[in-house]
Write a structure and sequence with these properties.
354 residues, alpha+beta, Aminopeptidase, Elongation Factor Tu (Ef-tu), domain 3, 2 domains, eight-stranded mixed beta sheet, six-stranded antiparallel beta sheet, 17 strands, globular
Amino acid sequence: MDKKSKKFLHDLVLAPSPSGFEQPAQEVYRQFIAEYADEVKTDVHGNVIALKHGSEKIRFMVVGHADEIGLMIKYIDDDGFLRFSAIGGIDGSLLPGLRVNVYSASNVFKGVIGRKPIHLLDSEERNRAPKLSDLWIDIGAKNKKEAQKMVSIGDFATFAPGVDELNTDIMTTKATDNKAGVYVAAGVLKEIGKQKIAANVYSVSSVQEEIGLRGAKTSAFQIDPQVSIAIDVTHATDYPGMDKNNLGDIRLGKGPVIARGANINPQVFKMLVSAAKEAKVDYQIEAAPRGTGTDANAIQVSRAGVATGLISIPNRYMHTPNEIISYKDLDGAVKIITQFARMLNDKSDFIPST
Protein backbone atom coordinates (compact mmCIF):
# COMPACT_ATOMS: atom_id res chain seq x y z
CA MET A 1 0.00 0.00 0.00
CA ASP A 2 1.51 3.33 -1.03
CA LYS A 3 1.76 6.26 1.38
CA LYS A 4 -1.05 8.26 -0.25
CA SER A 5 -3.48 5.35 -0.09
CA LYS A 6 -2.54 4.52 3.51
CA LYS A 7 -3.10 8.15 4.56
CA PHE A 8 -6.51 8.07 2.85
CA LEU A 9 -7.46 4.89 4.73
CA HIS A 10 -6.29 6.26 8.06
CA ASP A 11 -8.10 9.56 7.49
CA LEU A 12 -11.27 7.62 6.70
CA VAL A 13 -11.25 5.54 9.88
CA LEU A 14 -10.42 8.55 12.04
CA ALA A 15 -13.30 10.61 10.63
CA PRO A 16 -16.51 10.20 12.66
CA SER A 17 -19.42 8.81 10.65
CA PRO A 18 -22.17 6.95 12.49
CA SER A 19 -25.26 6.20 10.41
CA GLY A 20 -26.97 9.49 9.59
CA PHE A 21 -23.82 11.52 10.37
CA GLU A 22 -21.47 10.31 7.61
CA GLN A 23 -20.36 13.60 6.07
CA PRO A 24 -16.97 13.96 7.84
CA ALA A 25 -15.90 10.65 6.30
CA GLN A 26 -17.64 11.49 3.03
CA GLU A 27 -15.58 14.67 2.78
CA VAL A 28 -12.40 12.60 3.08
CA TYR A 29 -13.70 10.40 0.25
CA ARG A 30 -14.70 13.39 -1.93
CA GLN A 31 -11.28 15.00 -1.57
CA PHE A 32 -9.44 11.79 -2.45
CA ILE A 33 -11.62 10.61 -5.34
CA ALA A 34 -11.82 13.97 -7.16
CA GLU A 35 -8.42 13.38 -8.78
CA TYR A 36 -9.53 10.13 -10.40
CA ALA A 37 -13.20 10.72 -11.32
CA ASP A 38 -14.80 12.55 -14.23
CA GLU A 39 -17.78 13.48 -12.05
CA VAL A 40 -18.40 13.54 -8.28
CA LYS A 41 -21.76 14.28 -6.69
CA THR A 42 -23.44 13.96 -3.31
CA ASP A 43 -27.12 13.06 -3.33
CA VAL A 44 -29.89 14.10 -0.96
CA HIS A 45 -29.39 10.94 1.10
CA GLY A 46 -25.68 11.68 1.61
CA ASN A 47 -24.26 9.03 -0.74
CA VAL A 48 -21.19 10.21 -2.65
CA ILE A 49 -21.07 8.93 -6.23
CA ALA A 50 -17.92 9.24 -8.35
CA LEU A 51 -18.10 8.35 -12.04
CA LYS A 52 -15.32 7.35 -14.43
CA HIS A 53 -16.71 7.43 -17.98
CA GLY A 54 -16.25 4.37 -20.19
CA SER A 55 -16.38 3.99 -23.95
CA GLU A 56 -19.59 1.92 -23.97
CA LYS A 57 -22.99 2.05 -22.24
CA ILE A 58 -22.68 -0.57 -19.49
CA ARG A 59 -22.91 0.83 -15.94
CA PHE A 60 -20.85 -0.83 -13.21
CA MET A 61 -21.40 0.20 -9.58
CA VAL A 62 -18.83 -0.58 -6.90
CA VAL A 63 -19.88 0.40 -3.39
CA GLY A 64 -18.65 0.46 0.20
CA HIS A 65 -20.59 2.02 3.06
CA ALA A 66 -19.12 4.94 4.99
CA ASP A 67 -21.22 4.65 8.13
CA GLU A 68 -19.99 3.11 11.35
CA ILE A 69 -21.69 2.14 14.59
CA GLY A 70 -21.96 4.77 17.30
CA LEU A 71 -24.03 6.23 20.12
CA MET A 72 -26.68 8.97 20.19
CA ILE A 73 -27.35 11.22 23.18
CA LYS A 74 -30.99 10.93 24.22
CA TYR A 75 -31.12 12.39 27.75
CA ILE A 76 -28.98 14.51 30.09
CA ASP A 77 -29.62 13.80 33.76
CA ASP A 78 -29.53 16.32 36.61
CA ASP A 79 -25.92 15.50 37.42
CA GLY A 80 -24.74 16.13 33.86
CA PHE A 81 -24.32 12.52 32.77
CA LEU A 82 -25.31 11.64 29.19
CA ARG A 83 -27.66 8.74 28.54
CA PHE A 84 -27.51 7.23 25.09
CA SER A 85 -28.94 4.84 22.53
CA ALA A 86 -27.07 2.68 20.04
CA ILE A 87 -26.60 3.59 16.39
CA GLY A 88 -26.25 0.17 14.77
CA GLY A 89 -25.28 -3.05 16.51
CA ILE A 90 -23.51 -2.34 19.81
CA ASP A 91 -22.35 -4.98 22.32
CA GLY A 92 -23.08 -3.49 25.73
CA SER A 93 -20.53 -5.73 27.43
CA LEU A 94 -17.70 -3.89 25.64
CA LEU A 95 -18.71 -0.40 26.69
CA PRO A 96 -17.96 0.17 30.42
CA GLY A 97 -14.79 2.17 30.85
CA LEU A 98 -14.34 2.98 27.18
CA ARG A 99 -13.24 6.41 26.07
CA VAL A 100 -15.46 8.09 23.51
CA ASN A 101 -15.62 11.30 21.54
CA VAL A 102 -18.89 13.22 21.75
CA TYR A 103 -19.52 15.44 18.73
CA SER A 104 -21.63 18.57 19.14
CA ALA A 105 -22.45 21.04 16.37
CA SER A 106 -19.29 23.03 17.04
CA ASN A 107 -16.97 21.00 19.25
CA VAL A 108 -15.67 17.58 20.25
CA PHE A 109 -15.73 16.50 23.89
CA LYS A 110 -13.86 13.62 25.46
CA GLY A 111 -15.92 11.25 27.53
CA VAL A 112 -15.80 7.97 29.43
CA ILE A 113 -18.60 5.40 29.54
CA GLY A 114 -19.44 4.81 33.17
CA ARG A 115 -20.93 1.94 35.15
CA LYS A 116 -21.04 0.99 38.81
CA PRO A 117 -17.74 -0.63 39.90
CA ILE A 118 -17.70 -4.41 40.14
CA HIS A 119 -17.49 -4.11 43.95
CA LEU A 120 -20.99 -2.61 44.01
CA LEU A 121 -22.73 -4.86 41.51
CA ASP A 122 -25.22 -7.36 42.90
CA SER A 123 -25.02 -11.02 41.84
CA GLU A 124 -27.62 -10.61 39.08
CA GLU A 125 -25.79 -7.61 37.62
CA ARG A 126 -22.45 -9.41 37.69
CA ASN A 127 -23.82 -12.36 35.73
CA ARG A 128 -25.25 -10.48 32.76
CA ALA A 129 -24.00 -8.07 30.15
CA PRO A 130 -24.95 -4.51 31.05
CA LYS A 131 -27.93 -2.95 29.35
CA LEU A 132 -27.33 0.41 27.69
CA SER A 133 -29.72 1.85 30.26
CA ASP A 134 -27.20 0.82 32.96
CA LEU A 135 -24.52 3.03 31.39
CA TRP A 136 -23.80 6.72 30.85
CA ILE A 137 -21.20 9.01 29.31
CA ASP A 138 -19.22 11.20 31.71
CA ILE A 139 -17.90 14.36 30.03
CA GLY A 140 -16.81 15.98 33.30
CA ALA A 141 -19.79 18.34 33.53
CA LYS A 142 -20.73 19.58 37.01
CA ASN A 143 -24.46 19.36 36.40
CA LYS A 144 -27.18 19.29 33.76
CA LYS A 145 -26.93 23.00 33.00
CA GLU A 146 -23.22 22.78 32.26
CA ALA A 147 -23.63 19.63 30.18
CA GLN A 148 -26.39 21.29 28.13
CA LYS A 149 -23.97 24.07 27.22
CA MET A 150 -21.64 21.43 25.78
CA VAL A 151 -23.90 18.93 24.02
CA SER A 152 -27.48 18.64 22.78
CA ILE A 153 -30.01 15.86 22.49
CA GLY A 154 -29.34 14.02 19.22
CA ASP A 155 -25.58 14.63 19.22
CA PHE A 156 -23.54 11.52 18.56
CA ALA A 157 -20.50 9.76 19.97
CA THR A 158 -18.00 7.28 18.59
CA PHE A 159 -15.33 5.08 20.10
CA ALA A 160 -12.20 7.18 20.65
CA PRO A 161 -10.36 7.25 17.31
CA GLY A 162 -6.86 5.95 16.77
CA VAL A 163 -4.86 3.73 14.43
CA ASP A 164 -2.12 1.25 15.31
CA GLU A 165 -0.16 -1.21 13.21
CA LEU A 166 0.51 -4.54 14.88
CA ASN A 167 3.01 -5.31 12.14
CA THR A 168 3.68 -4.04 8.61
CA ASP A 169 0.49 -5.67 7.30
CA ILE A 170 -1.94 -5.69 10.22
CA MET A 171 -3.91 -2.59 11.20
CA THR A 172 -6.19 -2.10 14.21
CA THR A 173 -8.71 0.71 14.64
CA LYS A 174 -12.41 1.37 15.00
CA ALA A 175 -14.70 1.34 11.97
CA THR A 176 -12.85 -0.76 9.44
CA ASP A 177 -16.49 -1.85 9.09
CA ASN A 178 -16.80 -0.39 6.61
CA LYS A 179 -14.21 2.24 5.81
CA ALA A 180 -12.40 -0.77 4.32
CA GLY A 181 -15.09 -0.95 1.64
CA VAL A 182 -14.90 2.77 0.90
CA TYR A 183 -11.13 2.46 0.54
CA VAL A 184 -11.54 -0.35 -2.00
CA ALA A 185 -14.25 1.47 -3.97
CA ALA A 186 -11.99 4.51 -4.25
CA GLY A 187 -8.96 2.36 -4.99
CA VAL A 188 -10.65 0.89 -8.07
CA LEU A 189 -10.99 4.33 -9.65
CA LYS A 190 -7.42 5.17 -8.66
CA GLU A 191 -6.15 1.91 -10.18
CA ILE A 192 -8.04 2.46 -13.43
CA GLY A 193 -6.48 5.91 -13.60
CA LYS A 194 -6.35 7.25 -17.14
CA GLN A 195 -6.90 3.84 -18.75
CA LYS A 196 -9.65 3.52 -21.32
CA ILE A 197 -12.18 0.83 -20.46
CA ALA A 198 -15.61 0.01 -21.82
CA ALA A 199 -17.58 0.23 -18.57
CA ASN A 200 -18.81 3.38 -16.90
CA VAL A 201 -17.54 2.83 -13.37
CA TYR A 202 -19.51 4.33 -10.49
CA SER A 203 -17.53 4.32 -7.23
CA VAL A 204 -20.00 4.86 -4.40
CA SER A 205 -19.48 5.64 -0.73
CA SER A 206 -22.93 4.81 0.60
CA VAL A 207 -24.67 5.75 3.85
CA GLN A 208 -26.83 4.12 6.52
CA GLU A 209 -25.92 0.49 5.84
CA GLU A 210 -25.74 -0.29 9.55
CA ILE A 211 -29.41 0.62 10.01
CA GLY A 212 -30.92 -1.08 6.99
CA LEU A 213 -28.83 -0.87 3.77
CA ARG A 214 -30.55 2.43 3.03
CA GLY A 215 -27.91 4.30 1.03
CA ALA A 216 -27.21 1.35 -1.25
CA LYS A 217 -30.91 1.12 -2.04
CA THR A 218 -31.21 4.75 -3.13
CA SER A 219 -27.88 4.94 -4.97
CA ALA A 220 -28.58 1.75 -6.92
CA PHE A 221 -32.01 3.07 -7.88
CA GLN A 222 -30.58 6.29 -9.34
CA ILE A 223 -27.54 4.71 -11.08
CA ASP A 224 -29.53 1.72 -12.39
CA PRO A 225 -26.41 -0.43 -12.94
CA GLN A 226 -26.39 -3.61 -14.96
CA VAL A 227 -23.76 -5.04 -12.61
CA SER A 228 -22.51 -4.15 -9.13
CA ILE A 229 -19.96 -5.28 -6.58
CA ALA A 230 -20.46 -4.47 -2.90
CA ILE A 231 -17.43 -4.41 -0.63
CA ASP A 232 -17.79 -5.05 3.08
CA VAL A 233 -16.04 -6.91 5.88
CA THR A 234 -16.69 -10.47 6.97
CA HIS A 235 -15.85 -12.40 10.12
CA ALA A 236 -12.33 -13.81 10.15
CA THR A 237 -12.47 -17.20 11.85
CA ASP A 238 -8.77 -17.58 12.62
CA TYR A 239 -8.93 -16.71 16.31
CA PRO A 240 -10.17 -18.51 19.44
CA GLY A 241 -13.86 -19.25 19.82
CA MET A 242 -14.83 -18.93 16.14
CA ASP A 243 -16.86 -21.84 14.74
CA LYS A 244 -15.44 -22.84 11.36
CA ASN A 245 -18.15 -25.51 11.01
CA ASN A 246 -20.76 -22.76 10.71
CA LEU A 247 -18.73 -19.80 9.47
CA GLY A 248 -16.11 -21.40 7.25
CA ASP A 249 -12.34 -20.97 7.31
CA ILE A 250 -11.63 -17.26 6.72
CA ARG A 251 -8.12 -16.05 7.51
CA LEU A 252 -6.55 -12.64 7.80
CA GLY A 253 -3.95 -11.95 5.12
CA LYS A 254 -5.02 -14.86 2.91
CA GLY A 255 -6.83 -12.65 0.44
CA PRO A 256 -10.21 -10.99 -0.02
CA VAL A 257 -13.31 -13.15 0.26
CA ILE A 258 -15.59 -13.77 -2.72
CA ALA A 259 -19.13 -14.65 -1.68
CA ARG A 260 -21.13 -17.38 -3.39
CA GLY A 261 -24.84 -18.03 -2.94
CA ALA A 262 -28.35 -16.72 -3.47
CA ASN A 263 -27.40 -13.04 -3.08
CA ILE A 264 -24.72 -13.42 -5.76
CA ASN A 265 -25.21 -13.59 -9.51
CA PRO A 266 -23.47 -16.81 -10.63
CA GLN A 267 -21.95 -15.20 -13.72
CA VAL A 268 -20.51 -12.40 -11.60
CA PHE A 269 -19.06 -14.95 -9.18
CA LYS A 270 -17.34 -16.79 -12.03
CA MET A 271 -15.97 -13.54 -13.43
CA LEU A 272 -14.63 -12.47 -10.02
CA VAL A 273 -12.80 -15.77 -9.62
CA SER A 274 -11.35 -15.37 -13.12
CA ALA A 275 -10.39 -11.78 -12.35
CA ALA A 276 -8.58 -12.88 -9.18
CA LYS A 277 -6.62 -15.49 -11.12
CA GLU A 278 -5.74 -13.05 -13.90
CA ALA A 279 -4.62 -10.46 -11.36
CA LYS A 280 -2.63 -13.16 -9.51
CA VAL A 281 -4.34 -12.34 -6.20
CA ASP A 282 -4.99 -14.92 -3.50
CA TYR A 283 -8.67 -15.16 -2.62
CA GLN A 284 -11.01 -17.04 -0.30
CA ILE A 285 -14.60 -18.17 -0.88
CA GLU A 286 -17.45 -17.70 1.57
CA ALA A 287 -20.71 -19.63 1.41
CA ALA A 288 -23.72 -17.26 1.56
CA PRO A 289 -26.91 -19.34 1.26
CA ARG A 290 -29.29 -16.41 1.78
CA GLY A 291 -29.31 -12.62 1.92
CA THR A 292 -25.94 -11.43 3.14
CA GLY A 293 -26.93 -8.46 5.33
CA THR A 294 -24.65 -6.24 3.22
CA ASP A 295 -25.32 -3.59 0.59
CA ALA A 296 -25.31 -6.44 -1.95
CA ASN A 297 -28.67 -7.50 -0.55
CA ALA A 298 -30.35 -4.18 -1.39
CA ILE A 299 -28.59 -3.73 -4.72
CA GLN A 300 -29.53 -7.17 -6.06
CA VAL A 301 -33.26 -6.41 -5.88
CA SER A 302 -33.13 -2.80 -7.06
CA ARG A 303 -35.59 -2.03 -9.85
CA ALA A 304 -35.82 -5.14 -12.06
CA GLY A 305 -32.71 -6.69 -10.49
CA VAL A 306 -28.95 -6.14 -10.69
CA ALA A 307 -26.24 -8.73 -11.35
CA THR A 308 -24.52 -8.45 -7.99
CA GLY A 309 -21.34 -9.69 -6.37
CA LEU A 310 -19.82 -9.31 -2.94
CA ILE A 311 -16.18 -9.09 -1.93
CA SER A 312 -15.39 -8.95 1.77
CA ILE A 313 -12.32 -8.13 3.83
CA PRO A 314 -11.56 -10.57 6.69
CA ASN A 315 -12.09 -8.70 9.96
CA ARG A 316 -11.31 -9.77 13.52
CA TYR A 317 -13.42 -8.40 16.41
CA MET A 318 -16.13 -6.78 14.28
CA HIS A 319 -18.19 -3.99 15.89
CA THR A 320 -15.64 -3.44 18.64
CA PRO A 321 -13.38 -0.42 19.28
CA ASN A 322 -10.42 -2.39 17.91
CA GLU A 323 -11.17 -4.24 14.69
CA ILE A 324 -8.24 -5.83 12.85
CA ILE A 325 -7.70 -6.14 9.09
CA SER A 326 -4.85 -6.77 6.65
CA TYR A 327 -3.55 -4.18 4.18
CA LYS A 328 -2.77 -7.05 1.80
CA ASP A 329 -6.41 -8.14 1.75
CA LEU A 330 -7.54 -4.58 1.00
CA ASP A 331 -5.23 -4.10 -1.94
CA GLY A 332 -6.04 -7.58 -3.22
CA ALA A 333 -9.70 -6.58 -3.36
CA VAL A 334 -8.80 -3.45 -5.34
CA LYS A 335 -6.87 -5.52 -7.88
CA ILE A 336 -9.64 -8.11 -8.31
CA ILE A 337 -12.40 -5.56 -8.84
CA THR A 338 -10.25 -3.45 -11.15
CA GLN A 339 -9.58 -6.50 -13.32
CA PHE A 340 -13.29 -7.34 -13.22
CA ALA A 341 -14.09 -3.81 -14.44
CA ARG A 342 -11.70 -4.25 -17.38
CA MET A 343 -13.58 -7.42 -18.40
CA LEU A 344 -16.93 -5.64 -18.78
CA ASN A 345 -18.48 -4.41 -22.03
CA ASP A 346 -21.90 -4.05 -23.63
CA LYS A 347 -21.86 -7.73 -24.63
CA SER A 348 -21.38 -8.94 -21.04
CA ASP A 349 -24.12 -11.44 -20.23
CA PHE A 350 -25.19 -12.01 -16.63
CA ILE A 351 -28.16 -14.31 -17.25
CA PRO A 352 -27.65 -17.39 -15.04
CA SER A 353 -27.01 -20.59 -16.97
CA THR A 354 -26.16 -24.18 -16.14
